[in-house]
Write a structure and sequence with these properties.
Chain lengths: ~220, ~220
DNA sequence: TCAAAAGTGTTAGCGTTACACCCATGG
DNA sequence: CCATGGGTGTAACGCTAACACTTTTGA
């Protein structure tokens, strides 16, 4: 691969995807372990080169699936990283995506080139290959920002959730506790969720109302 | 160029820059006229291929300068457009930038390949080549959005300006009139401008106070 | 019966908006 | 002196933030 890239007169492109999930009160991302020098045993965000016959977005989905087994998750373009020396194998520009899943227990797989894969707390990351630390930081800060003016948070929750799960998602990402009553008032005022005729069961406390998002996709929604 | 691109197994990259300025109560962008089929006589945003030895941002600055003569303007990455068929000459992905200048009277030049160049009201654009209409729309909506949570507006004003010029910039881009007293209160509360010991002269009405931005660059600033 | 989380309203303070008159200058 | 835009304050309203007790369940 490196020979192919080096001989190009112009830059070629890759995609890298930061996949987020909530777990255990933490915001986590999915990383794979590198084998290749000079990054042996360093972790990286899954990615790969964009082929001549696929769109950038398709490429991001394909490489995420090939490297991790993950498919059918929400994805959104993040930023394009284009420094000259970001990749020691050649002149590669990376179009970074962020992806969100409600399901940290989804099946993930390793590959021949990446024998380990795992979820890492964004507040406690290992050393990352390439400029992936910068990519991850950009993704985390974009995600926080989008919490405030979109309904993107629902991409991190199951179809059905409780007000408390929703509130906890905000608390984890914003890093601060919120008031239960005020939180519920705002969410209801924004008209983003429906309360279902359904309660949680099996917990040693009062059952909670089950809710669902009113809209399928991600939309802008001043203001939380 | 098309032959070079076609033989690549992977996608190559270009940058395109939407340069904004305010003029005559309108938000305008700088366009150049194409000669090449199938875009003969269509207008386009200035851009060009990213070389193997330059960063993406440097490439955007270089191509803007080469195609229009414009240099030393504020630039910021916008979005990356990666559909397969966006360029009939080959598999080219475009990293779009937006640029802002306070000075619509700056010198601009044509080139061998682009014999015409000019400023166009974003509300009255000609037919654009490639997917440049999409790029321009993305740029306009990003600019509007950033007005609300950054001090980016100062990149469209001279170093020294009056409160009225500042307010007019907001009014043009937001497309609505604002209240003079409330506007001034907000701006002062945000502590974004200094009033200078200086007045405008030569106008057939009371002189206005001259102001300047407190910060050099673009920063986030909840909320206008 | 105990522990744990769910559900639920009111009040005070702050920020936002609406609004009108006099002033300084050039022509 | 006239036309033009510049400069300035207050009051009502709405939104936000602070705050605590009762309910329901499983163990």
């Amino acid at each position: 691969m490196s020979n192919i890239i080096k001989k190009y007169e112009y830059a070629v492109m890759a995609t890298d995807t930061v996949l987020f999930a909530l777990d255990d009160g933490k915001l986590k991302i999915l990383l794979i372990k590198m084998n290749k020098k000079p990054f042996v045993d360093m972790w990286a965000v899954p990615g790969g080169l964009v082929r001549g016959d696929e769109s950038v977005e398709v490429s991001a989905k394909r490489t995420l699936k090939e490297k991790t087994g993950v498919a059918n998750v929400f994805m959104e373009q993040l930023y394009t990283f284009g420094n000259v020396n970001r990749d020691p194998f050649g002149r590669v520009v990376s179009i970074a995506y962020m992806a969100l899943t409600p399901n940290i227990d989804m099946e993930i797989k390793t590959t021949k080139d990446h024998k380990e894969i795992g979820w890492f707390d964004v507040k406690d990351l290992p050393v990352l290959a390439y400029d992936h630390e910068k990519i991850v930081k950009t993704a985390v800060s974009r995600l926080s920002a989008k919490l405030e003016y979109t309904n993107i948070v629902f991409q991190l929750l199951s179809k059905e959730f409780t007000m408390n799960e929703l509130q906890t998602a905000y608390e984890i990402i914003r890093g601060e506790k919120l008031d239960k009553r005020n939180f519920q008032k705002k969410i209801l005022a924004l008209d983003l969720v429906k309360k279902l005729d359904k309660k949680t069961t099996g917990q040693a406390h009062r059952p909670a109302n089950v809710c669902t998002a009113k809209h399928e996709g991600v939309v802008n929604v001043e203001i939380l």
